[in-house]
Design a protein that fits this description.
The chain is an alpha/beta fold and 451 residues long. The chain has helices spanning 69-82, 102-112, 126-139, 160-173, 186-199, 205-209, 214-231, 243-253, 289-300, 316-319, 338-349, 354-368; strands at residues 3-14, 18-27, 30-35, 41-46, 51-54, 56-62, 85-92, 116-122, 143-147, 178-182, 235-240, 259-264, 306-308, 386-396, 415-425, 428-432, 435-436. The protein has a domain at 55-368: Metal-dependent hydrolases (TIM Barrel), CATH 3.20.20.140. β7 (85-92), α2 (102-112) and β8 (116-122) form a beta-alpha-beta unit. The radius of gyration is 21 Å and the shape is globular. Bound molecules: zinc ion.
Length: 451
Amino acid sequence: MNMDLVIKNGRVVIPGVGVVEAEIGVENGKIAEISKRNLEGEEEIDAKGNHVVPGVIDPHIHLGIFEAFEKECEYETRSAISGGVTTVGCFFGGGESYFDVFPDAVKTAEDNVYTDIFFHLVIGNDVQLEEMERYAGELGVTSFKFYMAGIPGIIEPVSDGFLLKAFRKIAEMGYPAIACVHAENASLVDLATEELRAKMDDGTLEDWEKTHPGYVEEEAITRVTYLVGLANARLYVVHLSSMDGLNAVIDAKQWNENFYVETTSPYLSLTKNDDFGLLGLMVPPFRSKEDVDALWEGVEDGWIDSFGTDNVSMTRAVKSAEKGMWNTMPGYPFLATHLPVILHEGLHKRGIALETLMEKASKNPAKIFGLYPRKGTIAVGSDADLVVVDVKRERKVNHEELHSYSDFSLLDGRTLKGWPVLTVRRGEVVMQDNEILARKGTGMYLKRNLK
Ligand SMILES: [Zn+2]
């Protein structure tokens, strides 16, 4: 019997398990066979001894913040598949009830995305809080985002009481319902910011870090893991950025194991001392080399469960770094470089096994958000989301080759070792040698259900 697609001569990476030399047969977009024997396919791909990893799941991106949602769905998910990311988890927020706006957003996404996509809904007011369970049942969204500290002028923070109430609802819903929390202490951020503002009319990226010192993350993680423990709900701490924050994670895990921690590929690779200056302004901020090393130790020791990007695409004009520290917009594009950075920093610089890295880059996000085993692994019956990776390939980053509309990358000019050479999404070859082969709108919305 001929398969639709066969990948030959690959070293197949099963996250958390190991690497096997096998052929992968794909039928109707799903993995139909993983075998040592010779499979035959209508289309055959020679992986040439390279690794075949499961499609990367970036559970943390934003679309439509500084550009139209429709445009970002198209351009930024195109950038994602060029980098081996086949599924994205997008934060969606604003307004009152999501029943008014979300169905249209899903339609727009499905008309434009190249990757598969799922959403987390930001819960920021009482209407949304009351409707959470219906969002799960009727909209297919089972993960909810809460900001303990907001982004001034963009997102309002919520109170501890609001959080506890929401956590109780999430606990009632059961798996895979989960609270995603931006953990920073809002009042302490305000204080640190006011104190710095009184001293400085402008500053550098190093100064910016002082507006969000590590202890604001440490305190908020301590508090939110306490609150979630009271409610017995599942928790996902987004974008851990600091050594202080990691210490709070380790302390909290001693008595509450029921939470997960994400860091981002930018926090695992970049610092406040890098030469891109205010282009790197972000919340939470880039920190020191010691923080980067601590986060990698957290990865190796198993405290950190997953990798995201917190991708917020924009142009230099929107970023406005030339207007000074107090007027620069937070965010940067990162999707196309997510996997290369993980390979460069994790596999090559620190010698962490590929199957461990792929656990955090694909399997764990799938499990945490209720997409496993359809996504997140290479197994018979799973979606055929597969990436052929040449771990030895070196390439200098140039934002013009990253398929995003953004006109910069923080990594411009740096050489990274380890790049995807071919991406398959649900059985379709969507990228080869950095050429996009799919049409827009071929990605799908991943509706999730409560068990
Ligand atoms: Zn974010």
